[in-house]
Amino acid sequence: MKKIIAAFDGLKFSDSTKDFAVQLAKQSSAHLVAVFLDDFTYHSYKIYDLIRENGQAFESERNRLDKQDEKTRSAAVHNFETACRDAGLEYTIHRDLNIAIQELIHESIYADLLIINSEETLTHYTEKKPTGFICDLLTYAHCPVLIVPTVFKPIDKLLFLYDGEPSSIYAVKMLNYTIASLKQHPLEVLTINSEKQSLHLPDNRLMKEFMKKHFRDVTYNVLKGAPGTAIPNYLETQTGNPLIILGAYHRGKISMLLHESMANTLMKDFNFPMFIAHNK
Length: 280
Known about the structure:
- This protein is of the alpha/beta class.
- The protein folds into 2 domains: 3-148, Rossmann fold; 157-277, Rossmann fold (3-Layer(aba) Sandwich), CATH 3.40.50.
- The chain has helices at residues 15-28, 59-87, 100-108, 132-140, 166-178, 204-214, 227-235, 260-269; strands spanning 3-8, 31-37, 91-96, 113-117, 145-148, 157-161, 187-193, 218-224, 242-247, 274-277.
- Strand 1, helix 1 and strand 2 (31-37) form a beta-alpha-beta unit.
- The longest helix has 29 residues, at 59-87.
- It is elongated.
- It starts with a strand and ends with a strand.
- 38% of the residues are buried.
């Protein structure tokens, strides 16, 4: 049985994270853990809103707002528990009270997959995608991460971005390991070669031999151009609800095709779920 963790901001509960997590856990017969990041430094209000002109805090107002925050967080937990019970899932609730990013990275050590909304910030503020919280998480997470959009739509196909680097193969291996139920969908392998290269896949024979052993319905598409423009242009033509599979999201040596800026571009410009894994 796999262990999937779904990360939530209890003050801004993500229904799409819940829906993706419940569906995938049910399909995979996985144990689902909801990690509610109840960071003690994070509230629905700003501290300076409670300061008098003479510098004294409205303690009674602060206590009232703290109680309201706790009520909101408890309602979010109840929402998740109800969905799990209705789906007949085995589940656990973790309410982590320390610094959110540190807690979640630590939780990822003991998980097969982490699911989180692409817009999570764990702050009062709205940020452009990818948020600082998501960038830090993807850099330091110890398990594959499934980034999901704010609106749930069932995945109906897989699009694997492949450049011949070990990191990209590692990503599709991790998908096969963590959520094998998705192999029921057709998978397209997309490769971008330079104008000087042929239209063959990198390691063509070995690649196709590997994919044939793990996926039943695979097609291959090799385009020419610059990855930074060819991939977004291709994604704009997509219909349905593909899951984008990427390797390599880390600082240091990264693959030509799936470098950090590419992952950021896809998060910023598209609302497709993205499975990101890298071997450190």
